[in-house]
Amino acid sequence: MRVLLVGAGGVGTAVTRIAARRSFFEAMVVADYDLARAEAAVAALGADGGRFRAERVDASDETAVAALLERHSCDVLLNATDPRFVMPLFRAARTASATYVDMAMSLSRPHPERPYEQCGVKLGDAQFEAAVEWEKAGLLALVGMGVEPGLSDVFARYAADELFDEIEEIGVRDGANLTVDGYDFAPSFSIWTTIEECLNPPVVYEADRGWFTTAPFSEPEVFDFPEGIGPVECVNVEHEEVLLIPRWVGARRVTFKYGLGDEFIEVLKTLHKLGLDRTEPVAVRDVRVSPRDVVAACLPDPATLGERMHGKTCAGTWVKGVKDGAPREVYLYHVVDNQWSMAEYGSQAVVWQTAVNPVVALELLAGGAWKGAGVLGPEAFPAGPFLDLLTAYGSPWGLREQ
Amino acid sequence: MRVLLVGAGGVGTAVTRIAARRSFFEAMVVADYDLARAEAAVAALGADGGRFRAERVDASDETAVAALLERHSCDVLLNATDPRFVMPLFRAARTASATYVDMAMSLSRPHPERPYEQCGVKLGDAQFEAAVEWEKAGLLALVGMGVEPGLSDVFARYAADELFDEIEEIGVRDGANLTVDGYDFAPSFSIWTTIEECLNPPVVYEADRGWFTTAPFSEPEVFDFPEGIGPVECVNVEHEEVLLIPRWVGARRVTFKYGLGDEFIEVLKTLHKLGLDRTEPVAVRDVRVSPRDVVAACLPDPATLGERMHGKTCAGTWVKGVKDGAPREVYLYHVVDNQWSMAEYGSQAVVWQTAVNPVVALELLAGGAWKGAGVLGPEAFPAGPFLDLLTAYGSPWGLREQ
């Protein structure tokens, strides 16, 4: 396997550090808009970097990306950029007849009249429209293959295959107890993206209604996260799992709730109330600026906070249903301690947890344990081999009976 | 009496509309940095504007202001600008041997080491330093003569003279139920100034400790405001009354609490937490802007909201003590309904309520019912004539036994 990794930010850099310890691939080309960033990622691997090389590429230029895939004879494109670049990279892989893997899906657009009731363009719609074409060509696009979406979808498939006869509800639940020294308020991930994700209408799936949306921050609940993280206030957020899971796993209801916590929810609501979440520029004395950019500029850059960060992050899937005629409820989860990921890989916990899952998936595709054609989510593949290999990577998962 | 009114913003404009109906003065010169604004205020008076004329002046240029006082033979300067211009206007009045009246006091500076325990430079300190000099010259500076400070101080004096033998605590309490159509969040006053006022360390007076400060938003309480406004969450805020009242009225404790309400308090705390209250510019892509200016630019201009506003604003003074050997507790208050002030004067309630009080004071000074020399607060004068004249202006006050 020869891999083109596009994006050498936090997640892309962690991908190189995890992959460098595995032998399943022959070469990995690390490409970024900023060549220096790609070179720094490769240089940081030191003696382990023999199979890696850096390139410059504009992820929005699908012709250039397709040419780069062909020039390096890559058979896989792994997309580690932000979701604005999903479609050009997806099309570039198709043009070059490469396998495509990403950690998100193509973006949504709210319903023009009833944004908080009906879906407009859904996450992934643009990719699934091309599914038949990919399948006919015998090519695979594995979409949403990070941690959430990604591992959370693998957990859903595992629950359906091994733990339940019938499933009432699948709820992905994400929470953390991360703190950052020296800051009163310092998000561990991009505030710009968090605003986008959390203020979009959340999507919910119900078997008898299909997909529908709600107002932001709907259905608050306190979820008790394992391994000492404890109870965190969670709310509905638009996320890929809700679009992916129902396509392959039978469940009467599918939700995604993000453990933002009271404080973060209040911050996001306040930013929205004051119009500070807006991206369109406003006039301020003699200049024009985007309010959301000003908010981001006032906060520290989360990519630089790993050394000051403490605590754990948890991704997981809560499933409620029936097994052998008895009600059952489980939470399948994966926890990363920032202290461990910084010591082992020099990557902060949230970034490392996102990066490890696509590397495991690539290894399963390289070995043939996972194979397929079309546009498929992680739950389209057998879960057992994935979970076993993740454990072999030194990062075990857990199961809690509720 | 010939008056120089400096500042033709919301409050200055309302002053002209209220004064135009009274005969106690001979002439009023309306001066603003923006001549068009002064001209608009005078033009709006129509046939009632005979005694008024507009001038341009820079309030920070004390020489120019003194010259303007002399050129128009004004014997009173009424300051209706923001508190940054208190000191130059105060000095200009002294130079021209005019009576000085303002609605705030000179600005404070927090204690450099213990901002939330000890006072640094207090509100009005710069003015009271000149008190002996004004007194020797036989000149009067009447400071803090708006609604709060102003009418609230008159209420304190009235309570001490007429309602109590001994006072335990005087607490100014300000609350409103104003809403603005078409906006989820639209403050009825400048967000820039509110941030300044509410994030400064609040000051409290106790007879055995003197003046001291606390952390922002301290000692929250729910105060029940009269005339249908109802309960509002109030917190300590830095305000002039706490510095003025103890100089002339005996009380064991003096506080000022602002009925910001939970929502507004949360907004201010969030802005502070995110650093969006800062005035120093931050770099945002290729420009530099002050985050507090961006917050102001995202919200509607409160001066333009009168037509869309509904509800009432209440200013008042709660007093607890002993009368004839029995415990007593009263709330002396003044309520303005926005619908009434818009219909009667075309001024929104908060602005009109601030403006009426200095006009009443000028009329008492013109008639000799109030007289004095030095730097004096409203509570240095007899309260009865003020409250009677305010009622005669068509805006009665109330007393509630608690």
UniProtKB/TrEMBL annotation, chains A, B:
<dbReference type="Pfam" id="PF16653">
    <property type="entry name" value="Sacchrp_dh_C"/>
</dbReference>
<feature type="domain" description="Saccharopine dehydrogenase-like C-terminal">
    <location>
        <begin position="146"/>
        <end position="394"/>
    </location>
</feature>
<dbReference type="Pfam" id="PF03435">
    <property type="entry name" value="Sacchrp_dh_NADP"/>
</dbReference>
<dbReference type="InterPro" id="IPR032095">
    <property type="entry name" value="Sacchrp_dh-like_C"/>
</dbReference>
<dbReference type="InterPro" id="IPR036291">
    <property type="entry name" value="NAD(P)-bd_dom_sf"/>
</dbReference>
<feature type="domain" description="Saccharopine dehydrogenase NADP binding">
    <location>
        <begin position="3"/>
        <end position="142"/>
    </location>
</feature>
<dbReference type="InterPro" id="IPR005097">
    <property type="entry name" value="Sacchrp_dh_NADP-bd"/>
</dbReference>
<protein>
    <submittedName>
        <fullName>Saccharopine dehydrogenase NADP-binding domain-containing protein</fullName>
    </submittedName>
</protein>
